[in-house]
Write a structure and sequence with these properties.
Blueprint: H1 3-12, H2 15-50
Length: 69
């Protein structure tokens, strides 16, 4: 199925079914994004634990931050 044919089919649906489709699609996108982020975290977890160059600036976390205006 092409994108164009999918859109044509969606346009034939009643409004309530279109809204349900949008809700389910957004949920699917959120879950996929969450899964991608979890995979990235897992991949980099060891690097952040062992590579001091990646965490060098965390020593500044306890410092007060003053915004320049």
């Amino acid at each position: 199925m092409t994108t164009t044919s999918i859109i044509k089919e969606i346009n034939r649906l009643p409004l309530s079914e279109k809204l349900l489709l949008v809700e389910k699609t957004l949920k699917s996108i959120r879950l996929e994004r969450e899964h991608d982020l979890e995979a990235a975290v897992a991949m980099m977890q060891n690097e952040y634990r062992t590579d001091k160059e990646l965490t060098a600036f965390t020593i500044l976390d306890a410092e007060n931050f003053y915004e320049a205006r």
